[in-house]
Structures are given as C-alpha cells and as structure tokens.
Amino acid sequence: MSEWIPVYQAANSLEAHTLKGSLEVSGIRVQLQGEALSGALGELPANAVEVTLLVRARDLEQAQLILEPYRQGAGPAWYCRRCGEHNAGSFETCWQCGHEADPTE
Description:
The chain is of the alpha+beta class and about 100 residues long. Helix content is about 25%, strand content about 20%. The strands form two sheets. Strands 1-3-2 form a three-stranded antiparallel sheet, covered by helices on one side. It has a two-stranded antiparallel sheet with strand order 4-5. The longest helix has 14 residues, at about 60-75. The chain is elongated and about 45 Å long.
C-alpha cells in the first residue's frame, strides 16, 4: 500500500474538490481527509472543518508544482458586488452567484 502525504490544506470542501480535479486531470490520484466534518459546521472551530488533500509520496513533487500557481495567484479576498458573498482572492468569480470579480477589487 502506498504512503499518502498531505499536499494542501483547503479551507472548505469546494476548494478541496476544485484542486482535487486539477490534480486528477494531470493523472495524480488524490484522497480527501476531513471532509466528513463539514456536517458539524457551527459546532466545531472553523479550522476543524478544513479538508486536507493527500497524494501518494511518488506524486508529491508534481502535485506541488501544479498547486504552486494557485498558491501564488491568490490575491486579496473580496466581496461580491451582486450578492455580497465573501470570496477568497483565488476566485475570479463569486462562488455563490457566479458574478465576476471587479478588477479594481
């Protein structure tokens, strides 16, 4: 059995699945750890519902290279002008309503 190594700590399930898809498109198998805790949101501290992406040890270096632009590209967080939702700086569109970020934000 292969050893699984943490490669990224996602803030939530949506971010975890987005990054998981990016890695899987490149042929890297991914396991998610901690996703089941999201059902307890409100009863647990915010950092307890983070989702960890795990990859096989042999894929760690390639996975880090794929995730690096995502880590570097995150600008400041912003609020959607349409619905008011708070979005991470890495999102170009609002995750709630799909409205594009204002370039001046």
